[in-house]
Structures are given as C-alpha cells and as structure tokens.
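Re: that backbone. Tokens:
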C-alpha cells in the first residue's frame, strides 16, 4: 500500500496530500489501499486555482475518503486576496460534503521580513476563521517555522507538520503536539502514478471525522 520506511504510530490513520501534479487519480484504488483522508490543493496565492481540485474532492468523497482543501500561501501577495481566492474555490468545491478544516500551507517567505510574514499569516488565519467559523490548520516544517515564524502566536490552529524521514516529527514552538504529520514526499500509493506525499493523522477515525464540517459562511453552516 504505502512505502517509505516509517513505521505507523499507534492509533494513527494514513492519508495523502495531492495536487494537479499527480494527474488523474483512481480514488477507488487509493481507498482500497487503506488511505483514510486526503488533503487536496485548491489554490495558491491570489489567483491560481488547481484545475483538479473539484474532481479530486468529489472522487475522494465518492470513494469514502475524508477530504480537506489547502491553500499554498505566497508571502508577497495581499492575504485578503488569498483568502478571497481560496474561499471562492472552497465554497464551490466543498459544497457536496463535509471536509477537514482548511489548510494554510506555509513554505514561501518571499522577500518579506519575518515580522511582515507573521502579520500576513495572522491576517489570513483570522479572516478564514471569521468568515467560516473554523480556524485553519497550519502546514509547516519545523525549520521554516523556526526561521520565519518562531514568535508567531498560535491560536486555535491545529498543526500539520512536514518532517520527512524521521521516526518522530519535531513539533514547532507554539504547539504541544501535532495533529497531522507529512512524513514523506516520496510515497507510493496504488491508484496514483509516481510519487505522492504521505501523512498520518494523530488519532482514530472517530477523531478524524469529528474535525469535519461544511466549508461555507458561518451563518449558513448546518
């Protein structure tokens, strides 16, 4: 099913994260291989929209896989425009089923100072929470966090930590534990051609499903 040499932690669920780079995915095969959840790229920066976001979301749901949507943050672009870009896609794509909380993918510092980056991240996080009533998950590596965001005040954000080829991930300052762990970018999963990122959820299926809800304005949520 999954190959990378990291032993599964106790009471953890396997997942993946994908984008248009994976091409056409056979989600039924992915599910048959034991994958329980998938983070799907929705947007990047202020204008980019992943061409396969909708079909990946719909097909994952149809295969019984719990979906989530993520936004790749571009530090030099107005965070308000990035929120607008993400929500315009998420409101449409995720209307068919509950999803995991939105993810803010932090990998790009651009030419921003650390202070400016922290401010922009805070703006994005708080605006998402204000509009949909759900705090986004933060995806980040320990090294990126330490270099650029170490003094950022974490609020209600769950941690999705990216730390490859280690027995246990290093938890960045501000959190006491991780909720999701991307432990490889070179995984093999039936139904996907080529490499794919591999993840664990720190809990059981009931805990994972408890994180799901609709992605829509807070006043319209069920």
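Recovered sequence:
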């Amino acid at each position: 099913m999954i190959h990378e040499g990291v032993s599964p932690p106790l009471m953890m669920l396997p997942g993946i994260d994908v984008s248009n780079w994976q091409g056409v995915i056979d989600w039924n095969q992915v599910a048959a291989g034991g994958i329980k959840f998938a983070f799907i790229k929705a947007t990047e920066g202020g204008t980019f929209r992943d061409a396969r976001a909708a079909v990946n979301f719909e097909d994952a749901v149809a295969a019984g896989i719990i979906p989530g949507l993520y936004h790749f943050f571009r530090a030099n672009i107005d965070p308000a425009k990035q929120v607008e870009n993400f929500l315009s896609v998420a409101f449409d794509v995720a209307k068919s089923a509950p999803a995991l909380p939105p993810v803010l993918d932090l990998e790009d510092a651009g030419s921003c100072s650390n202070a400016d980056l922290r401010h922009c991240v805070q703006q994005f996080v708080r605006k998402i929470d204000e509009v949909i009533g759900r705090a986004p998950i933060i995806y980040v590596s320990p090294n990126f966090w330490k270099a650029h965001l170490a003094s950022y005040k974490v609020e209600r954000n769950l941690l999705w930590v990216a730390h490859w080829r280690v027995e246990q991930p290093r938890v960045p300052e501000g959190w006491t534990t991780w909720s999701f762990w991307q432990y490889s970018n070179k995984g093999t999963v039936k139904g996907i051609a080529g490499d794919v990122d591999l993840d664990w959820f720190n809990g059981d299926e009931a805990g994972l499903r408890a994180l799901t809800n609709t992605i829509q304005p807070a006043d319209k949520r069920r």
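Residues 114-132 form the longest helix (19 residues). The radius of gyration is 16 Å.
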